[in-house]
What does this fold into?
Amino acid sequence: MALVVHKYGGSSVADAERIRNVARRIVRVKDSGLDIVAVVSAMGDTTDDLIELAHTVSSDPDPREMDLLLSTGELVSCTLLTMALRSLGYPAISLSGPQAGIHTDTMYGRARIHSVDPDRIKSELQKGRVVVVAGFQGITEDLDITTLGRGGSDTTAVALAAALGAERCDIYTDVEGIYTADPRIVPNARKMSEVGYEEMLELASYGAKMHPRSIELGAVYQVPIYVASSFTDAPGTLIQQSADERKMENRIKVTGIATQANVAKITVRAVPDRPGIAAALFEPLAKGGISVDTIVQNTSEERTTDISFTVSRADLPHALREVESLKETLGAASVFSDPTLASVSVVGSGMQNTPGYASRMFRILADGNVNIDMITTSEIRISCIVREEQAAEAVRLLHRGFQLDMEGQ
Amino acid sequence: MALVVHKYGGSSVADAERIRNVARRIVRVKDSGLDIVAVVSAMGDTTDDLIELAHTVSSDPDPREMDLLLSTGELVSCTLLTMALRSLGYPAISLSGPQAGIHTDTMYGRARIHSVDPDRIKSELQKGRVVVVAGFQGITEDLDITTLGRGGSDTTAVALAAALGAERCDIYTDVEGIYTADPRIVPNARKMSEVGYEEMLELASYGAKMHPRSIELGAVYQVPIYVASSFTDAPGTLIQQSADERKMENRIKVTGIATQANVAKITVRAVPDRPGIAAALFEPLAKGGISVDTIVQNTSEERTTDISFTVSRADLPHALREVESLKETLGAASVFSDPTLASVSVVGSGMQNTPGYASRMFRILADGNVNIDMITTSEIRISCIVREEQAAEAVRLLHRGFQLDMEGQ
It folds into this structure.
């Protein structure tokens, strides 16, 4: 029997009424003759509430303990959804991440799935049951509980869809799909009916509300991902390879504008400019599990260099401790940080091969008096780090400047 | 190194300040040179809140789902206590029931521990860590999560103490020990400095706030259990075999008065009085996981019999469904139930061998105008089922009538 995987985000299961609503949606799919695995996030703000609770007993909670604590949020929502399904008369069973066979590495707080053992899920599906899986969590070789990081339930869903050979992975959320920019910032942003994995990856990495690793997984295993609202039946956005290919003939250069808040910058000043200095700085950070985003290095005349890089604001204290401990080894003059930045990105196809897009972006920002702190580019993206309070204005300027609000784009 | 197991109840870890208080208590023990395993219940009313939440999505939540849901309460408290210990500078690690090696049968909601695999705990203790274990929960052979029933964390603690060869198992709660009667009902009830396992088992089964199975386990594995308050340093009550034995010479007939609220009675009327009828009734109830307490059967002149039995009020709907479905098979005329009863018990040593104690109990209740609905006795206990609203008065009458408030008893 054909199988679909659904994922319901925290706002879709925020209370009993919404959970019953999700149960009714699942029942419709089951009645249409499909097998279904539903992955759920924690209810509403549960994860934030648990983090806050941890900080009432410890100023610097241990990551392993934090993960076991946070994993409870999804256990609650997945058992409640299962109960709601059963009370509609449908056989259903909840599975924790470990029970669902989600095996991860030991990087607490941002663990990566290294394998999925789908035997238990398959056997429950064969019994005719709807299987409800707690997203966001997995288990290490030593049977410790890990979480996959913010938005990790998306990755759980796509990984299960890949492992189970599902037809499609539906991500149900509180927005109706993927837009050319955040509609809360740009009211006339357009919803896309489809988008390619790569562009979506850039959009997700730079602000769209999806876990970037879920897109990577979807691309690698060719799982079509459909993003839609759990509150309406409005058509959503389909993320798949063919979309990208079909677009080859009628290429739209700029797909959308992404933005990411909570960016922090660390600058290491006046490091001796010798080989190996970047490795000496970034290897310990990687080992500490800190994701470094944009990196900029400027060599000055005095045989020293300044290295700046960005991390998420949540990682700043941890990253700063690491860097401070390396200061002497590196021979750096000083270390300083700025926690109140944001990134704004223009995402599209083949941008790096088309000169002029970057300069057009910089011109639009300059004309809007938005100062650019750092710049980074990829094959399909140009990102600028700006002051956080100017980020929304920057998105609006770029959305208009690249004429994304026009029909037929 | 000598090892102690501590158990902290829900009121002892009800908020951040109390969790920090428990952490400080544990640190004092660790500093005295002992290894320590701490078992915790869920914070405050968490379990009740989760049950209520389940009932918002389902009128009759599935027991397996309920257990996975309820198990989250202890995960939260055990990770928070671990964080609090670490923030005091002490190495500590939290373990879920499965991680702590608590293996159970599949009787959801009242699972029994069939084995404890203490390898992980031992290896963490060897690393010098305080081990904090989520009470109340275990794992089946099929890796499903179970809970041990109300108060099950006591049983987790004693089972771990037995498996690890601990010196003692300390049960910290919001009362200062075991009393001759509930001090909220009988203000001059006395705290006992020690009590034997068997008497404690009857006291626990009939009202004292401890999980009866924890006492059974303690008796079988000869684990001394110390019950005391987590809020004061007042001396508590030691439950151990030798106490009973020392008492042999100076035997006190009545140890205490126990009471149990939330008793419900089911009566099956006019069942044909033939062999096998009790088995036909009680076997399906046992298979359904319903604990039946007092059973009374009265044969009438017309070759039929009435069978009455009590269950906990929570089990009444489930039990009634079972009994109704058996009505035809049994050939019963009717089934009725009464949910508003309570039991009151006099517990002591060798009561059944000493005629007069039962009649003295019945006389005290009769003089107080307390009507007795059912009676049951054991080697060391006489219990009466009474109307719930008369239970407190019955306890006071019996405490006074058996002179338990007198010093030197």
In short: Chain B is about 35% helix and 25% strand. Confidence is low (pLDDT under 50) at residues 243-250 of chain B. Residues 63-87 of chain B form the longest helix (25 residues).
